[in-house]
Design a protein that fits this description.
Four Helix Bundle (Hemerythrin (Met), subunit A), single chain, mainly alpha, 74% helix, 6 helices, 2 strands, two-stranded antiparallel sheet
């Protein structure tokens, strides 16, 4: 277990996930600053955005499920339901939870290839997604600290 930047004690695996989250955020920040004309023509940039949005979202989902488990809350049947349970139990506020659910939906599309993600939509919303994911991680870690949960 290690202390995470004044938040709480975390397992080595959680620490690695959070470090990977931060790496992903840096890459997403770079892609978000890229002009759309360049982004739309670059499969590399689109792949970087999609993969890192997926990974960062999965960190949020994993931490959400740890909280749900350790608090003995209802077992979710979907990733979106994990976020809904956190909203119902006042871990996340309604607006933030709604935004995270949107990102989880996009993650599902990316992973399961239900449809193509339009480059314009992902690029246009990337800065918002980055902000939402960072805020969500912060809120989840604060909740863990306040409730003495060691993720």
């Amino acid at each position: 277990m290690k202390r995470l930047r004044g938040y709480c004690m975390v397992s080595e695996s959680t620490l690695r996930r959070i470090e990977r989250f931060e790496e992903g955020m840096k890459l997403l920040d770079k892609v978000a600053k890229t002009r759309f004309e360049k982004y739309s023509k670059s499969l590399d940039l689109q792949s970087i955005a999609e993969r890192n949005l997926q990974v960062c979202t999965e960190v949020i989902i994993d931490l959400s499920n740890v909280i749900i488990s350790k608090k003995g809350l209802k077992v979710p049947s979907t990733y979106k339901e994990s976020i809904e349970i956190l909203k119902e139990n006042k871990v996340l506020k309604d607006k933030l939870a709604k935004d995270v659910e949107e990102i989880v939906g996009i993650r599902n599309i990316i992973v399961h290839m239900y449809a193509d993600i339009k480059a314009e939509i992902l690029h246009k919303n990337l800065s918002k997604f980055i902000k939402v994911l960072r805020e969500t991680l912060k809120k989840l870690l604060e909740f863990c600290k306040k409730n003495k949960i060691d993720p």
